[in-house]
Amino acid sequence: MGNYGKHVFVLGAGASHESANIPLGKDLVWNYHVDCGLLVPYDNTGPDLREENENFTNYRKFLELAASIFPEFKSLPKKWDNRGMNVFRLYSRLEKRHYIDELLELLQKQGNKEGAKLVKYLIFEHIAQASFNRPNTSYKRFVKEILKIKRPQTTSVISLNFDCMLQEKEFINEVYFDYLINFDWIDHNRTQFYRCSNPIPLIKLNGSLDWGICENCGRLHLYYPFMYRTFYKNKACTKQQCGGGVTPFIVIPHEKYGEKINSLWNIAKNHLKDADQVTVIGYSFPEYDKDVIKLFQDSLNTNVRIEVVDKCQNDQKKKQTEYLKKKYMELFKLSIEIITLDGFSDYLDIQGNQADIRRTSNQKGER
Ligand SMILES: [Zn+2]
Which residues surround ligand 1, an ion (CB under 5 A)? Predict the structure, then answer.
């Protein structure tokens, strides 16, 4: 980590995927059954799918929605009903236009509010269920080994992820975070550790699953971050006599959410402008993330040190190194330092080794 000034960490889907099995963008919702299906009991009459069908009610609705939008998926609901004991896999046939962010954009254009609500609800369900009881090792280490020893004044985190795996129960008293967004209501269990002392800015540009927005009055709620799959089912607004339903406040790239989220993008811009060092973990600036690319293009200064933490197969490393260097040069006119292509956990190992070396040499110096 060295003696650099302001340090911004950027967390992408790859970081959450490695730490807590959070689905990547391309798999979100579509792979829900593959990731979270049950082992179905079987007797003489066939598989007993009752519990599964109950758990995947919304997914069945989603398949109907997909069938109504994409002609190539017309037969999905029927296939689902006849899946028997099989895992329901659609993966190989998906294109970018099928991905959930594009689908949500389409639904919004069509004015299909119920459809958009269903998709957002399923994003939550899939992430909550896929990460349930997972070890979350990398984020735990990131908090304890890196963020804890950093000064909050010089460190911030920009996250592009919806999940709140950086907010684990055992991180309480280790590091506090500040979302830098105004909530109208905060769960009393959350107030015990939200923003307590010296919080580190955690700027979530796409919203967060623990932020709930009232569909009726726009009231923004902050919930306790450890949420079960059905958390948002029939969740009601806390405002007296409002009666609105609350959905997770998650924002798809193209969506304009007005002031609430725009202010966060401006804050991110300022943090990036001030940054001496930016470490990008598990994020690849895909072409379709135009707003994110523009944000970084408008903000990064020419002297910034960019570190990249990525993951690929061993035999792809040479190619990936060239690809990444070229990409950053083209997008930002910046050269980068690739710290590792072995992922988030290897980055943490490297940082740990460097800290050990520094400690040893400091001790020698003191003698
Ligand atoms: Zn309300």
Answer: 214, 216-217, 219, 237, 239, 242, 244
